[in-house]
C-alpha cells in the first residue's frame, strides 16, 4: 500500500541525512564526465549527452564498464561483440570502435582509455561512473555500520540505491553473456545494499521509508529471509500489523512449498516481536477495538467529491459495500486509507485493512485472509474449513459489531464474497482495478485521475510550491505527461526533489519523449514500469493481446473504427474487446461529444483514450521478443 521511495541524491537531504553526507552524491557536479549504466547506457560531459555510436561500439564500452580500471582482453571484447562468428576484420573493427570511444570520452587525451599488456583499460574515478559511486557509498555505509553508527550509514546506503534508474544495461544486456552476468551481479549487490539500508534505517527509529519501499524488493526476492525480516519489522513498527502477519504467512508458505524449509531465526524473531506487541494491546483493549491501518498520507491531495461520496455511503448503516475502482496508480488505496482514518471513530469495535492479493499479484487464499481478519479483530476460535460454513460463522460473528473492513486490491468476486459482512452495522470498503460487474449489491465509485490543479498542488507539496510557480508551464507539462496519476506524480516528484538543479522544462522534455518517460518515472528502483508490469501480469491473455494491437496506434485517443482496424476485427468484436479493457480498469469509458443538430450520436461519436503511460508500456511489451508482433 505504498507509493514512493523518497531517495536522496545529488545534494538532496532526506530524513536523517546530514548536509555533510548529502554531499557524497555530488560527484558528477565536480567531474565533467559521467557514465551511467544502472539503466540504459548513457554518457555525458558537463550535463550534455555524448554520442556513443552504433550497437557494437556501445557493446565495447559496456564490456569495458563491467570492469572499470581493469584490463579487458581483446578476446573478451571479441566474444561480446561477435558471440557466434567473428569476422576476419574483428580486431581492426575493435580498434576503430576503441579509437572512436577514446575521442568521445577523452578529447583532451588524458589517457583515460589505454591499451596495455592485459588489454584495454578504461580509467574512471568514483565520481565519473554510477556503479563506482554506488560501491563507494556502500563501502562507506558498511564502515559506519561497523562503527555502530546507523544514523550515518542509512543515508549513505540510501544515496547508493538512488543511483538506480532502471535495469542495468537495459538496452544491451540481451546481446552479450558477459553483460547478462554483470546485470545479475549488480542486482545481487543492490539487494545486499538495500537490506543493509533497511536494517540501518530501522535502527534509526524511522521505519516508514522501509515500509514504503520493501514490497518491490520482496516481489523480486520473495524467499530472501533477511529481506523478509526487515519487511516484517518495518510493517509492524508503522502499525501495519495485518500486512506484517500476512507477509510472514506468505513467506512461510513459499519456503515450505518451494524449499521444504521453515523460516530461519531472524524471521521468526521478527514474527515473535509482532505477536508480543499485538497480544498485550488486545488484553488492554479487549477483543474488539483493533485499529490496524496503514498510515495516512501526510500530503493527501484533492478527491473532495469522492471523499464525500464514500463517506456518505459508509455512514448509512446497513448500506451495501462501497467499491472504489480505477486503473493502477490512480490512488485507490490512498483514498481508502484516508477515508478509513477519517471515519475510524464511527467504528469503535475495529477498523482493519488487508490485501486480497499477494506480492506477485496472485489472489491470496480466502481462508488465509479470513483467518487474518478474524485474528486481527480478536476472534480467538478457529473458523470452519468449509467455505460456506466459514462464511456463515464469520458473518454471524460480525453481526451487531461496529467494524469497518478495508479490503484492498480485490482481484475478483470469488476472492471477495466470503469476507463481506452481513447487512448491518459492519461496513466494507473495497478497492479493485476491476469493476467487478458480478458484485451486487454494491455502491461503485470510479476514481479518475487527478485534475490538473490537484496534480500541480501535489507536485508542489513534493518539490516545493515556489519551484512549481516559477516554472508553471513546465510543471503543467510534467503532470500531464504523468497521466495525472498520483503514483506516477510521486515517482516523478521524488526524482525532481533529488535533481534540484534540473529545470522543470528539461524534465518535462524527458517525460514527453516516448522512449524515456518510463525510465524517468522511477524512484529508487520503485517506479511506474514496475507498477504497470504487475498490473499487466494480472490481465487475461486476450486483454493483453488487445493492448498489443492498440500499441500500434500513433496516440492514446482513438475511435471504435480505428480500434477495429488495429485489432483486425469487425466493429462488434472490437467493441467487446474495448469493454473488456474497461471492465478490468485499463480503459476509461468512452467520451461522447455534445449531440447537436449537426452531430450524430452514433458509435463513431464516442472517443476512447488509453492512459498514456499504459500505451507506452504496451508498446514495450509488443516490441519484446516472443510477442509475435
Automatic annotation (TrEMBL):
InterPro entries: AAA_16, AfsR-DnrI-RedD_regulator, BTAD, OmpR/PhoB-type_DNA-bd, P-loop_NTPase, Sig_transdc_resp-reg_C-effctor, TPR-like_helical_dom_sf, WH-like_DNA-bd_sf. The keyword Transcription regulation applies. It holds the Pfam family BTAD. Keywords: DNA-binding, Transcription, Transcription regulation, Two-component regulatory system. Coiled coil: none annotated. Residues 25-124 form the OmpR/PhoB-type domain. Transmembrane segments: none annotated. It comes from the Bacteria. Residues 1-25, 278-302 are annotated as: Disordered. Residues 25-124 bind DNA. Gene3D superfamilies: P-loop containing nucleotide triphosphate hydrolases, Tetratricopeptide repeat domain, Winged helix-like DNA-binding domain superfamily/Winged helix DNA-binding domain. SUPFAM superfamilies: C-terminal effector domain of the bipartite response regulators, P-loop containing nucleoside triphosphate hydrolases, TPR-like. Belongs to the AfsR/DnrI/RedD regulatory family. This is NB-ARC domain-containing protein.
